[in-house]
Specification:
Blueprint (H helix, E strand, L loop, with lengths): L35 E2 L11 H17 L14 E5 L3 H37 L3 H39 L3 H14 L1 E5 L4 E7 L2 E6 L3 E10 L2 E10 L5 E2 L11 H15 L19 H10 L11 H6 L1 H11 L18 H7 L8
Antiparallel strand pairs: 1-6, 2-3, 3-4, 4-5, 6-7, 7-8
Helix pairs in contact: 2-3
């Protein structure tokens, strides 16, 4: 990732909601059982509340650590909104050591206590009631002690022991980690109007934003029914939902607001969504810079904000609007365009970087 530069102009392929795009009809039905197809181009101008709260905390804490935190290695900016696909293998490797240590403390410790009590009982020929008393006292005591020391010892283990072991291989590991992250990195590109989903092993799927249908997917878990934003490429039926962008949410309106925010991010007739992590880049986007100048927006609004006060006042109002907005009344601007051109003709107008359809 490089230091951000000002956008001078958008590509001819950038998404513009005020321009009708001729699109071919899809061979498969767009309706999906249990999932709700979302409309294009009907904006509520609402950003996902809970993600905004998380962003405020992230941006403010990042700035405390480094006032220029956004100049390098920042995943969202005025040109690209980047995110990771779910990489189960990477998660497993990261969590393997601490979970092994916790398992050893709990199970290994209990086993050691039990073996010690049995050994002492056999050696001194203790009566059965005393043997049971020792077990009933020492085993729960060890479990309590283990839970008490787990946080501090796990942190020390990861920081000092693992750090010391891996120190000689630091550069190699950093390179491998960067390659792994890059391999799983997907993006929405505001400048080009393209969306790219990483497929792993150096492969990716890229297509124009308007070729993706968005759905609110129902996710059934033990706690009940939850919701997640899912993307389906209209002409290949490739499905993308397991990403760091598509969090599983308890409230459907949070997912609806996320889709609203993503559309406005990609739409170059609109200013960037007023999200905390995009704030440092607003002056670098021409449409947004002009909008902020017209509205006299405070360029440090989110970074200087008192989060607690905001949540009680303006934030509470935003959450109320998000929950009460008439989401069901939105009208799609893309659906009427489907079938306005045949596929062979449409293929000729697609960007060269787009995958074959």
């Amino acid at each position: 990732m490089t230091i951000p530069i000002e956008t001078q102009e958008y590509a001819s392929t950038a998404y513009r909601s005020d321009q009708a795009v001729e699109l071919p009809e899809t061979r498969a039905k767009r309706e999906r059982v249990g999932d709700e197809l979302q409309p294009y181009g009907a904006y509520a101008n609402l950003n996902p509340y809970h993600r905004t709260v998380e962003d405020i905390d992230t941006v403010q804490s990042s700035e405390r650590d480094d006032p220029e935190f956004y100049k390098e290695h920042w995943w969202w900016d005025h040109q690209r909104l980047r995110f990771l696909n779910e990489k189960t293998g990477l998660k497993f490797l990261i969590l393997l050591l601490p979970f092994t240590w916790i398992f050893t403390l709990l199970i290994g410790g209990v086993a050691l206590v039990g073996w010690s009590v049995i050994s002492v009982s056999d050696h001194f020929e203790l009566p059965a009631f005393l043997f049971m008393l020792l077990l009933l006292v020492l085993v729960p005591s060890w479990i309590f002690f283990a839970f008490w020391i787990i946080p501090s010892t796990t942190n020390w283990l990861m920081t000092n022991v693992v750090g010391a072991i891996l120190k000689p291989f630091e550069k190699t590991l950093e390179k491998k980690l960067d390659e792994t992250l890059e391999d799983g990195c997907s993006e929405f590109n505001r400048v080009t109007g393209q969306v790219k989903f990483a497929l792993g092993k150096g492969r990716s799927f890229e297509a124009p934003f308007v070729e993706f249908d968005a759905y609110v997917e129902r996710v059934v878990q033990r706690g009940g029914i939850f919701y997640r934003l899912m993307f389906v490429h209209r002409y290949t039926q490739k499905q993308f939902n397991k990403t760091s962008l598509s969090n599983i949410e308890a409230e459907k309106t949070e997912v609806l607001a996320l889709w609203d925010m993503l559309q406005r991010y990609m739409d170059v007739t609109q200013p960037l969504p007023d999200m905390p992590r995009l704030e440092p880049f607003r002056h670098l986007d021409p449409v947004t810079a002009k909008y902020d100048q017209t509205t006299s927006r405070n360029p440090r609004y989110w970074r200087d904000l008192n989060l607690e006060d905001w949540q009680k006042g303006e934030g509470a109002e935003i959450l109320k609007k998000q929950r009460q907005y008439a989401w069901g009344r939105r009208q799609c601007r893309v659906t009427p365009q489907l079938g306005s051109v045949d596929m062979p003709t449409y293929r000729q107008s697609r960007p060269e970087t787009a995958c074959v359809v």
